[in-house]
Write a structure and sequence with these properties.
Layout: H1 4-7, E1 16-19, H2 33-37, H3 43-59, E2 64-66, H4 74-83, E3 92-97, E4 99-101, E5 113-115, H5 119-133, E6 139-145, H6 155-166, E7 170-175, H7 180-188, E8 191-192, E9 195-196, E10 200-204, H8 213-221, E11 225-229, H9 244-253, H10 257-266, E12 273-276, H11 281-288, H12 297-304, H13 310-318
Parallel strand pairs: 1-2, 1-12, 2-3, 3-6, 6-7, 7-10, 10-11, 11-12
Antiparallel strand pairs: 4-5, 8-9
């Protein structure tokens, strides 16, 4: 399994990954993104920004990189970066299928992505991912599985995914929505020839949304690598939007709200990789300080009071504008 590469890494940041959702396309729902990216959202500007982030991340010990078919040109940007670094063999590259990017490089599209978990969508998007990433693609994940997703019951799809696994690609899934725990447990039960199909799970978990924790612990105990996304709650846990309790703890540590928020996730015993969604190299450097944050019991208690009801959290997320 490719994540075994991380077991031999010695950098304190090796279990922090870099997600490319915020820089692979001109529009996304992260708060503060207008300030982060500025006015130039052209392809070359974001390609350069992505490559600068990848360079900085690797130099600072990051060893997992996460893209998706629906993240605009994220796979293309990542593939170009990898092509100039054939000697780098200690990283893990993941991508996702299941959403098609439909915004045509605009920020005001009526729909930015369309979900489709059919066999036909998998075969089309797998071919697209392989054309770009080739044998550098270590992990291929179903994007945003929910309890009603046909990907949980489609035996033909399971057989196709098992074929990919037999060829050396690790198969995983990501989740979203207030019923993440239900989706995780349903996916853990999926088998092909009596063998578990999925080897990784990527879920939202942060100081505001903790509902998936018990199911993620079960997934970890079952041998899956757990990848945590949206540890910053799409910017809601970053300055200046962070709640007062988080700002207070951050001030006490002498580090940023982002570092504290990600440290809270890193300390979970089931968390294998925690994603940074940084859009600038300064944000990335600040995020990576999470590896050295030490929180005491009193601080943890204050942060625990930030938890929202899952439905409330996801309703708020659904109202975030595409910047």
């Amino acid at each position: 399994m490719p994540f075994a590469r991380l077991a031999t890494a010695t950098t304190p940041t090796c279990h922090i990954g870099l997600g490319l959702a915020a820089v692979g396309r001109p529009g996304y729902i992260n708060l503060g993104r207008d300030h982060d990216l500025g006015a130039d959202r052209g392809v070359e500007a974001l390609r350069t920004r992505t490559h600068d982030l990848l360079d900085a991340a690797y130099a600072q010990g990051v060893r997992y990189f996460d893209a998706a078919r629906s993240y605009g040109r994220s796979e293309e940007f990542l593939a170009a970066w990898l092509s100039t670094r054939p000697d780098i063999d200690d990283i893990v590259v993941g991508s996702k299928w299941g959403y098609t990017y439909t915004a045509d490089w605009t920020t005001d599209a009526e729909r930015h992505e369309v979900k489709d978990h059919s066999v036909q969508a998998y075969e089309r998007q797998r071919a697209e991912s392989v054309e770009l990433l080739g044998d550098r693609l270590d992990l291929y994940q179903i994007h945003s599985v929910t309890p009603d997703s046909p990907a949980l019951t489609d035996k033909e799809l399971h057989a196709k995914l098992a074929e990919a696994a037999a060829q050396g690609v690790t198969i995983g899934f990501s989740t979203s929505g207030p019923a993440q725990a239900e989706a995780i447990r349903a996916a853990l039960a999926v088998t092909v020839d009596d063998e578990p199909l999925f080897r990784t799970v990527q879920s939202t978990y942060n100081a505001l949304e903790t509902s998936a924790a018990p199911a993620l612990a079960e997934a970890h105990d079952a041998g899956l690598t757990v990848i945590v996304k949206e540890g910053m709650a799409n910017g809601r846990l970053a300055e200046p939007y962070a709640p007062d309790a988080l700002k207070s703890v951050a001030q006490e540590t002498g580090l940023g709200c982002d570092a504290v928020a990600l440290a809270l996730v890193l300390r979970q015993p089931w968390a294998g990789v925690v994603l940074s969604g940084a859009a600038t190299t300064l944000q990335l450097a600040s995020n990576l300080h999470a590896a050295v944050v030490d929180l005491d019991d009193e601080q943890l208690t204050r942060l625990a009071n930030l938890v929202e009801d899952p439905r409330t959290y996801w309703e708020k997320r659904g109202r975030l504008p595409w910047h």
